[in-house]
Design a protein that fits this description.
Length: about 90
């Protein structure tokens, strides 16, 4: 199971994926005003490539945006491509 934890401060934040307590991936973002954040980087540890870690972190980011009335600007190529492939996530763009 992939556990995703969010860290957030006034300017930056991240979603960190853990599998069995080990770091599996990290997605970072930067706030762009009060109602938008920019996903600027996504990385997945090599051992966890192809296991859906990146998508799980993006889903957590989308849930956070929906729950808090925020919008996402996907500058990271992975996030941008995942939004293009998943129409059901685009409401937060």
């Amino acid at each position: 199971m992939i556990d995703v934890k969010q860290n957030n401060d006034e300017k930056h934040g991240s979603f960190e994926a853990l599998i069995d307590g080990k770091k599996a991936g990290l997605m970072t973002y930067t706030w762009a005003g009060e109602d938008r954040f920019i996903i600027d980087h996504t990385e997945v540890e090599e051992a966890y490539n192809g296991k859906g870690v990146g998508k799980e972190m993006l889903i957590k980011a989308v849930e956070f945006a929906r729950e808090n009335g925020k919008k996402i600007i996907p500058l990271c190529p992975f996030a941008k491509a995942t939004f293009q492939k998943n129409e059901d996530l685009r409401d937060v763009l």
